[in-house]
């Protein structure tokens, strides 16, 4: 995998950003928090806040309480400020600016939910803050703009920091019309690699002091995370534990004993293999 390509593309398409000072709307995932809907209702009692389920009129309509909602925050400054801190601690959704009418937004954003594959029953959660940058990076420009233009300016917290994206047609959103869009399986697979690139950027910053001797820390972390995925570790928690092992014992630790033997033990679950490797005394291996 070309670490430089994936990281550079992601940072160009969805660069780091400051927390947004102003925004008009949010797409929030009710399934991400048991209290989110109650918070919205509470805010409505003292602010002019409106919201609509994006599942309305779709095959997922009956499950609206576990789906995305479009929230109009233009007249809800209090809830808007409260939401920012929540977005920094939990993957609840994205916020954005838009010049489109609410009805147009509802129709076009709901249409994007069905754009993941050709068959019925496939849901594209394009508002998932941990995956929106990888998804945008994996799409060709035309598809990328099809997702971005309804919002003009998007902001989200990916678990490491704020990112943002701006539509090319910024300032002319009112003339945009929905067009069919299909995200292919290949693009979804590419998005997974771009997700690794985003995680590598975040972890490289977090573990910067431990990576001072490493050339191109982001690339080094990307390759370490890809090594973990190649060994069968896919969960975020597992990847970070693998990375800590690489920092402690060197990037080639999976090829060294006793790590190699531990990794090959089919009688141990993945978490148990990590735990066993973490108990191995530190040896004098290079970190690069």
Spatial order of the strands forming the largest sheet: 2-3-1-4-5-6
Which percent bin holds the helix content? 40-55%
Q: For the report, how would you describe the main beta sheet?
A: 6 strands, antiparallel
Total separate domains? 2
Q: Can you give the mean pLDDT?
A: 90
Share of residues in strands: 5-15%
Task: Give a structural overview.
Residues 284-288 have low confidence and may be disordered. The relative contact order is 0.12. This protein starts with a helix and ends in a 10-residue tail after the last helix. The protein is of the alpha+beta class. The longest helix has 22 residues, at 185-206. The chain has helices at 3-13, 36-44, 77-87, 102-112, 132-138, 141-148, 185-206, 217-230, 236-249, 259-263, 270-278; strands at 25-29, 50-53, 68-72, 93-97, 153-157, 162-166. The chain has two domains: 3-183, no CATH class; 207-278, no CATH class. It has eleven helices and six strands. The chain is elongated and about 60 Å long. The chain is 42% helix and 10% strand. This is DUF4123 domain-containing protein. Pfam families: DUF4123. Residues 25-145 form the DUF4123 domain.
Could you name the key traits of this structure?
6 strands; 2 domains; about 40% helix; alpha+beta; six-stranded antiparallel sheet; about 290 residues
